[in-house]
């Protein structure tokens, strides 16, 4: 509406005024044009498409997947028996005839060690606990990447909307400059008004440079999350979604306790430490070994072919200092993991609190811009246009009113993007998407 109003006014000025050439005409030709920024040359992707690509191609996620596979491959061998052994012994070989094994006793033996009851099962369980930790860390990495993609997406979406507002601002400012030039040519305004309007338009070049810089940085961040070259062209398409209300913090904390992957990893680490304590206590359970062999006695013996069996067991009770130390170490490991869980829990609750406060503040700003500031600035702009048409105000007031209205549009987009980014942080802190009701009346300005 503001663009149509201003364009209609400026067009009427052009029709009624003279178009005589003056020094300002040539200068105005060097000012920025509409759509002077580079158009995106890459694919235009939605948020869902970007998240799917990132979950498949992000290098950090791939690394976490390999860690899970490595942990899983360790499970099958964790509870296996030690390798069997083979042994040969040659007894009573004559020193004067070291090659004469017929005069010696030759023994061939195979043996196997057997851990005490329950030890193999506990070792397998500890390996499974390590898999659970690795899977929880993988899920945490996925959620971090997804949140990063969402934040980068809304940065680029905001930047795209700001570029559209910039184009409107360039068009209106150029028309305002032309109107001031025409009024100056017929003696209605001083030369100073034209020069100030020209400076105001020229400043838009600086604004465009900053917007293009933000776009390049946002694309580099997004491409990195997608596992692509940071310089790859890419653009986004989508809308902002705003809720009517957010869940209370107690509900979010309860969700985090059961869904936050980092807390799940710490819980799995506590379980692993508890299993390691059980295994340490099993150190007082003796281990066993069994051996069986064949003996070839010297030539001329009454029984030249013989066999032998052998069994042994450890005596852990005689080495209590070692096993007591292992038990104490395992108990300390449990205390350490429990302390880490508590520290992680408090950190998660802090993240939830901070993200919720920022999301609520951004939500209030969106409502303020949408319901209050935008209608007020549009009304002020219409009033200033009418006043300028009737020579009751100057061009600087008109440009100031126009810039104020467009600045509100910029602020609206920033607040909307800020809210979406804070929601991404909140859902990352909770570990699960946060239920929110869409607000149909809160549509983004286009």
How does this structure look, described?
The chain is α+β, with helices and mostly antiparallel strands and 446 residues long. The chain has a single domain, classed as Outer membrane efflux proteins (OEP) (Up-down Bundle). It has helices spanning 2-16, 23-28, 47-57, 59-78, 119-185, 191-225, 249-259, 261-281, 320-389, 395-430, and strands at 44-45, 85-91, 105-114, 235-236, 288-296, 305-313. The protein has a 4-stranded antiparallel β-sheet, with no helix packed on it. A two-stranded parallel sheet has the order 1-4. Helix 3 (47-57) crosses helix 5 (119-185) and helix 4 runs antiparallel to helix 5 (119-185). The radius of gyration is 39 Å and the shape is elongated. 30% of the residues are buried.
Chart the SSEs and their pairings.
Blueprint: H1 2-16, H2 23-28, E1 44-45, H3 47-57, H4 59-78, E2 85-91, E3 105-114, H5 119-185, H6 191-225, E4 235-236, H7 249-259, H8 261-281, E5 288-296, E6 305-313, H9 320-389, H10 395-430
Parallel strand pairs: 1-4
Antiparallel strand pairs: 2-3, 3-5, 5-6
Helix pairs in contact: 1-5, 1-9, 3-5, 4-5, 5-6, 5-8, 5-10, 7-9, 8-9, 9-10
Task: Give short descriptive properties of this protein.
446 residues; alpha+beta; Outer membrane efflux proteins (OEP); 4-stranded antiparallel beta sheet; two-stranded parallel sheet; 10 helices; elongated
């Amino acid at each position: 509406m503001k663009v149509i109003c201003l364009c209609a006014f400026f067009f009427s000025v052009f029709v009624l005024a003279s178009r005589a050439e003056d020094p300002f005409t040539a200068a105005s030709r060097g000012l920025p044009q509409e759509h002077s920024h580079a158009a995106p040359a890459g694919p235009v992707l939605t948020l869902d498409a970007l998240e799917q690509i990132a979950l498949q191609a992000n290098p950090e996620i791939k690394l976490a997947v390999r860690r899970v596979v490595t942990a899983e491959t360790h499970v099958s061998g964790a509870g296996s028996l030690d390798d069997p052994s083979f042994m040969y012994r040659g007894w009573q070989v004559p020193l004067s005839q070291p090659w004469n094994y017929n005069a010696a006793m030759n023994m061939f033996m195979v043996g196997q060690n057997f851990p005490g009851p329950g030890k193999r099962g506990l070792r397998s369980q500890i390996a499974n606990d390590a898999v659970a930790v690795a899977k929880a860390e993988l899920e945490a990495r996925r959620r971090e990447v997804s949140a990063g993609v969402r934040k980068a997406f809304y940065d680029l979406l905001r930047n795209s909307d700001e570029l559209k507002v910039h184009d409107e601002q360039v068009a209106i400012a150029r028309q305002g400059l032309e109107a001031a030039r025409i009024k100056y040519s017929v003696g209605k305004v001083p030369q100073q008004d034209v020069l100030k309007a020209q400076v105001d338009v020229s400043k838009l070049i600086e604004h465009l440079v900053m917007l293009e810089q933000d776009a390049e940085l946002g694309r580099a961040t997004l491409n990195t999350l997608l596992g692509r070259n940071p310089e790859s062209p890419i653009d986004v398409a989508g809308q902002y979604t705003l809720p009517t209300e957010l869940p209370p913090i107690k509900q979010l904390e309860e969700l985090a306790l059961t869904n936050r992957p980092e807390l799940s990893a710490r819980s799995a680490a506590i379980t692993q430490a508890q299993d390691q304590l059980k295994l340490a206590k099993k150190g007082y359970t003796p281990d066993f070994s069994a051996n069986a062999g064949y003996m070839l006695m010297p030539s001329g013996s009454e029984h030249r072919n013989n066999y032998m069996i052998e069994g042994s067991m450890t005596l852990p009770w005689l080495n209590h200092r070692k096993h007591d130390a292992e038990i104490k170490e395992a108990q300390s490991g449990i205390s350490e993991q429990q302390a880490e869980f508590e520290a992680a829990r408090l950190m998660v609750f802090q993240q939830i609190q901070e993200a919720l406060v920022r999301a609520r503040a951004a939500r209030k700003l969106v409502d303020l811009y949408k319901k209050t500031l935008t209608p007020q600035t549009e009304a002020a702009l219409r009033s200033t246009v009418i006043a300028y048409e009737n020579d009751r105000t100057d061009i600087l007031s008109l440009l100031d009113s126009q810039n104020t209205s467009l600045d509100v549009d910029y602020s609206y987009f920033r607040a909307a993007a800020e809210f979406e980014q804070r929601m991404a942080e909140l859902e990352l802190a909770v570990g699960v998407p946060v239920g929110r009701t869409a607000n149909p009346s809160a549509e983004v300005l286009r």
